[in-house]
């Protein structure tokens, strides 16, 4: 989601685990990836181990046997190259809409990173060719459906492996769909003929769901800060109190996320003439603000802490080498279950839950602005001429529709499991599905917060001649540069919503507030 491009300095594999921002830099912003000499040495060493098993009379899974429920078949030497090709071709069975380019690039990078650990037994040539494809901006066409989040993201990774073989469809660096063989030839890349164990090594990992988790964490971190800004603006525009955001109150409940959100709201509300206009005013009979205003830091703070937990899980996964079988540090080739996506699937579902709740409280604040009985003397629906004009009435409908959808998307995918491969793979994580629905939820949350920003901006301007806080004024000015957030007669509203959405996506809203507040959490 985030458009702001970080440094394009290249990333070197083999110098330590990837970080979440490394995934974003490569997947979203096209940073180049290199292999360290240490990584190549490790790959060469473990490839020797695999080649030593190739002629062994004892069957070794993925080297001289079939796969999944067909692992009981011993494959003769002359059929083993075909075994690897057949694995990739048969498993490239995705269906449905095409997956986004950034997701495929994240998936490719993560598989390359695992291959570069030297724990998979792949040949250096195969790894280097895969890396050439990524750096050339060639993106295999991957489809929505095909992964159960166990035994790896099999179908998505197989579509990528197919391109490595010079087969299937890809998009070139210009986004044009073409045959993989033609795209590789145009980039001067020779397709690979897979050897023992390589097909399995290319498709056996949690890379798709992990890549989407890293992207979502990055987007949600910016979104929760934006939501703090929109919440503060709503408090201001609804003549609410900033007293519940005092640091000593939040110290009484030392949840780290809520303290950070409360601090953000204090900074945004600082110096507000609107707030000062009703501070300690006897005519204001309200003892407490509604929960959607008063409890904003507690909800956003819980979201923050959940994101931090998800980031820890992602970092552990980024430090992993996932394959089956895997070459251990002491040279054994062992079957294992590390490809099971449960740890990643759980936090993907958890993030969808908190995203839905953050959207829900945002929508409640918007609705409060539009209700004359609760908006403290603003016009109904913030309309210019209520009755003739509908104001922002239907913008809240749009918000409500998205929040309702997000609540459905919060239903966890990870509690489901459908057995596959003739009951050999009898429990799966559905982590890919959890990641796909989280992406939709993150996009919806972005739009919900954008509508709250529009609503708060209009409500605050209707408080004139009272002036808003300096940070609020900076945000309203930034929103006004790309869309219309001023009060006035009804107009075509969808473009203004889209403009506000883009201002959230590209970080304009946070940047504008920070010109006044300094760095926000």
From TrEMBL:
Pathway the protein acts in: Amino-acid degradation; L-histidine degradation into L-glutamate; N-formimidoyl-L-glutamate from L-histidine: step 1/3
Name this protein carries in UniProt: Histidine ammonia-lyase
Major localization listed first in the record, in broad terms: cytoplasm
GO biological process: L-histidine catabolic process to glutamate and formamide; L-histidine catabolic process to glutamate and formate
Family the entry assigns: Belongs to the PAL/histidase family.
Listed Basic and acidic residues bias regions: 275-287
Chain residue ranges for the region called Disordered: 256-288
Keyword Amino-acid biosynthesis on entry: no
GO MF: histidine ammonia-lyase activity
EC number: 4.3.1.3
Cellular component, GO, one term: cytoplasm
Cross-referenced InterPro entries: Aromatic_Lyase, Fumarase/histidase_N, HutH, L-Aspartase-like, Phe/His_NH3-lyase_AS
Subcellular location: Cytoplasm
Keyword vocabulary terms for this entry: Histidine metabolism, Lyase
Gene3D superfamilies linked to this entry: Fumarase/aspartase (Central domain), Fumarase/aspartase (N-terminal domain)
Catalytic activity: L-histidine = trans-urocanate + NH4(+)
Organism of origin: Knoellia subterranea KCTC 19937
Superkingdom of the organism of origin: Bacteria
Keyword hit for Lyase: yes
């Amino acid at each position: 989601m985030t458009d702001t491009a970080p440094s394009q300095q290249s990333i070197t594999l083999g110098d330590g685990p990837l970080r979440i921002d490394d995934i974003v830099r490569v997947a979203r912003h096209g940073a180049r990836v290199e292999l360290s000499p240490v990584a190549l040495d490790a790959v060469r060493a473990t490839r020797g181990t695999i080649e030593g098993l190739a002629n062994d009379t004892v069957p070794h899974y993925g080297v001289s046997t079939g796969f999944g429920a067909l692992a009981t078949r011993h494959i003769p030497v002359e059929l083993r190259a075909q075994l690897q090709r057949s694995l990739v071709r048969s498993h490239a069975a995705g269906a449905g809409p095409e997956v986004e380019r950034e997701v495929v690039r994240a998936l490719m990078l993560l598989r390359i990173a695992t291959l570069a650990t030297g724990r998979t037994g792949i040949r250096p040539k195969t790894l280097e060719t895969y890396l050439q494809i990524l750096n050339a901006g060639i993106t295999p066409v991957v489809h929505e459906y095909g992964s159960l989040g166990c035994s790896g993201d099999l179908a998505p990774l197989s579509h990528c492996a197919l391109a490595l073989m010079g087969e299937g469809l890809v998009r070139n660096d210009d986004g044009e769909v073409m045959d993989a063989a033609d795209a590789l030839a145009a980039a001067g890349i020779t397709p690979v003929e897979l050897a023992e164990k390589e097909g399995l090594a290319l498709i056996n990992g949690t890379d798709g769901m992990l890549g989407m988790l890293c992207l979502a964490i990055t987007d949600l971190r910016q979104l929760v800060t934006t939501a703090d800004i929109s919440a503060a603006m709503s408090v201001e525009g609804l003549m609410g109190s900033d007293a519940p955001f005092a640091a000593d109150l939040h110290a009484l409940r030392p949840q780290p996320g809520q303290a950070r959100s409360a601090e953000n709201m204090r900074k945004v509300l600082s110096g507000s003439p609107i707030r000062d206009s009703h501070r300690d005013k006897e005519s204001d009979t309200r003892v407490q603000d509604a929960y959607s205003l008063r409890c904003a830091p507690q909800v956003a703070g819980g979201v923050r802490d959940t994101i931090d937990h998800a980031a820890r899980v992602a970092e552990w996964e980024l430090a992993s080498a996932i394959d089956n079988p895997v070459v251990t540090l002491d040279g054994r080739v062992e079957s294992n279950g590390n490809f099971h996506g449960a740890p990643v699937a759980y936090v993907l579902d958890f993030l969808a839950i908190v995203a839905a709740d953050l959207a829900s409280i945002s929508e409640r604040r918007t609705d409060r602005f539009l209700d004359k009985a609760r908006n403290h003397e603003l016009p109904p629906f913030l309309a210019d001429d209520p009755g003739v004009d509908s104001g922002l009435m239907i913008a809240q409908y749009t918000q409500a529709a998205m929040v309702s959808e997000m609540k459905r998307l919060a239903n966890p995918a990870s509690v489901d499991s459908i057995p596959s491969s003739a009951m050999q793979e009898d429990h799966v994580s559905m982590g890919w599905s959890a990641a796909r629905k989280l992406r939709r939820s993150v996009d919806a949350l972005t739009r919900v917060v954008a509508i709250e920003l529009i609503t708060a901006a209009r409500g605050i301007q209707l408080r004139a001649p009272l002036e808003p806080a300096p940070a609020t004024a900076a945000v309203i000015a930034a929103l006004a540069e790309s869309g219309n957030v001023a009060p006035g007669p009804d107009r075509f509203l969808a473009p203004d919503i889209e403009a506000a959405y883009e201002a959230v996506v590209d970080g304009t809203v946070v940047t504008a507030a920070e010109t006044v507040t300094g760095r926000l959490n």
